[in-house]
Structures are given as structure tokens and as C-alpha cells.
């Protein structure tokens, strides 16, 4: 590997190692620094290897267990072992092609036993399997495998489109569930608010009617005290007619009022008053009979 160079001295750079031969046979390794060579004795610098970490990107296309074609992008980081640099120099003509061939072999042996989802979930396991296999093989050739990164997993474009649609459908379904729950909570809160409003409205109506009753009682008593000779019926008729006109006035004061006042004529008001009085008299009679 490399061309022999016959000279009296040689300089090996840092993070490199030189291979010295004597009459075409490996003699020794030259560490970084300045070295004298015995050219008369047949010594020469056959080559220099870098001990820096090198990176090799490999793309492997294979098929998963569920018959999906997928392309995996691997990044292999390796370096020459200083003490075994002679093996790295003489044993392999093209170490990058050798590493790539082993990566192909290991990946295509593991991925077909896994589904596409498992490949995504267990890509670190695939990388570890490749690392273990390469360490066993390349260590004998003077190379150490530092790291293997599974950079990317690219399924077939149609598969990726289908996966995106499935993911979008799942998210839409989840969004619908959350939206339904939110609407349910709003409906419950709205119902609770309406119930509370009706309760408070009922309390207000009850107090209003109590106040009206107290006012009517006070008006009737004052009427009897100030005007002698009037009957209870005449007083009630007068009050009912007064309330009727007050109601008509309130309805006419607002153009957007939707209240319907039935019956409408003053004669009907008299009929309603008689019905109320008859009801009160029947109730009083029932109480007397119970006693």
C-alpha cells in the first residue's frame, strides 16, 4: 500500500504512523517525528497512515418484514490502530470498500426480520449489531470501529405519504375527542348557569309577588279607611283596571317587547278578577270545612 521512497531521512506528522521496509519487507513502524533511514542497508519509507478518526457514509436499501422498501443512511467512524498499523497497511487494499460490504451484509440480515415501525424504534439495535460485527472483522486488519450512527431511515415515498395520512387522521380523531369534551363541558356549564338563573329568577318573582300582595293589602285597607260604603268587590275591580292600564303602558313603551298580553279588553279583566275572587273564596271554604 503506497509507494516506497528511498531517502536518508523522513518526517512523520502528528496523528500519523509510518511504515518502514527493508529490501521490500516490513521492518518497523515509524512514530510521529524525524527519522533517519539506512538507504544503503535497504531501508525506505513505504507509506504513511493517518490515525485520525475517519468517517464513511453508507446508504443501504433493503426490505422490511412487512414488505416495505427502505433506505438506511449509516455513518461509520473508524481509525487505524497504531500498534497494528502494519496490518492496516498490508492486509486490505481498500478498507472503505471492505467496511461498506460488511455493513451491507449485517443490515440486510437484520432489517428483513423487523417491521418498518420496529426499524424506527430499534435503529440503535441495528447500529449496535453492525458495530459488533465490524469490530470482530476489522480488528484483525488493524482498524478500530469507534462509532456507528444510524443517521436516517427513509421509506418509499408512497409509504411515507401513507404514514403521514395515518398520523394526520389519528391527530384529527384526537382533536375531535378533545373538541367533544370541551363542548360537553360548555353545555354542562351552560345548563348549570341556566338552572341557577332560573332559580334566582324564581326567587325574584316570588319576592315581587309578595311585594305586590303586600301593596294590594295596604291599598285596600287605605281605601276602606278613606272612602266609606265601598265593597271589597268594587275595590278589587278598581285595582284590576288600574293594573291593566299600567301593563298596557309598559308594553307600549318598548318597541322590541315580545310579551303578549291576553285577554286584551277591559271586560276580560273583570272576568279574570271574578275568577280570582271565586278561587280565593273556594280556598277559604275548603279550609273552613277541614277545620
CATH fold type of the largest domain: Tetrahydropterin Synthase, Chain A
Strand sequence of the main sheet, in spatial order? 3-2-5
How many β-strand stretches? 8
Helix content: 55-70%
Brief description of this entry?
The chain has 291 residues and is of the alpha+beta class. It has 7 helices and 8 strands; from the N terminus they run βββββββααααβααα. It has helices at 85-90, 95-110, 116-121, 123-138, 157-226, 232-253, 266-290; strands at 9-12, 16-22, 25-30, 33-36, 43-50, 54-63, 69-80, 143-155.
Tell me what the structure shows.
The chain is of the alpha+beta class and 291 residues long. It folds into three domains: 9-50, no CATH class; 54-155, Band 7 domain (Tetrahydropterin Synthase, Chain A, 2-Layer Sandwich), CATH 3.30.479; 231-291, no CATH class. It is built from seven helices and eight strands; from the N terminus they run βββββββααααβααα. It has a three-stranded antiparallel β-sheet. A three-stranded antiparallel β-sheet has the order 6-7-8. The protein has a two-stranded antiparallel sheet with strand order 1-4. β6 (54-63) and β7 form a beta hairpin. It comes from Salvia divinorum (Maria pastora). InterPro entries: Band7/mec-2_domain, Band_7, Band_7/SPFH_dom_sf. This is Hypersensitive-induced response protein 4.
Which SSEs are present, and which pair or pack?
Elements lengths: L8 E4 L3 E7 L2 E6 L2 E4 L6 E8 L3 E10 L5 E12 L4 H6 L4 H16 L5 H6 L1 H16 L4 E13 L1 H70 L5 H22 L12 H25 L1
Antiparallel strand pairs: 1-4, 2-3, 2-5, 6-7, 7-8
